[in-house]
Specification:
By secondary structure, the chain is of the alpha/beta class. It has 8 helices and 6 strands; from the N terminus they run βαβαβαβαβαβααα. The two termini are about 20 Å apart.
Amino acid sequence: MFVLPNAVDASEYSPSFDHEKPHLVFVSNHIERKGIVGFVDAIDRLKRNETPPFRVSIAGDGPLSDHASSLCETYDDAEYLGYVSEERKQALLEDASVYVLPTYAEGLPIALLEGMAGGNAVVTTDVGSIPEVVGDRNGRIITPGDVDGLKQALKAMVEDHETATGMGEANRDLVVDEYTWSTASDRLVDLYAEIGEETNA
């Protein structure tokens, strides 16, 4: 068996690592499977407790968008952007420091790789192939639906901004090295060459 992972064009992203304060970003469909309700709940809990200042940006839309808009009406440093263009999404991920995807079901999400290409630490869940990509060096993994665990993971990112920035730098390097289209195409060409040699042997 040969597994060819998903890939992104890392050259489309020019991440910034000099954030004045943590910037947490959620960019995905606002449906139950993507964990938008748990994300909003975790952010609300953090904002109501004493944590260092941090920004929140929520992009995307769907049937559960009212949760995002309600949160952002409550806090001045939280913004709900709704549906965004590809260019706006890229700029948002470049400006962010932590990409959050508390999903319930995935393979290897393109959105996660895009967040990493944008130079973000990641907070996500232990589903699909995500644990093969994300570990303690570059992010935090929680169980789907564990809002308290999500809150604690986000709290750690906010309270130790320097470590989160280092995770973002590690993620950028990882995507460039392992998850670009050029790397994927090279692996596929190598596979065909190997099969050809075995067939002709």
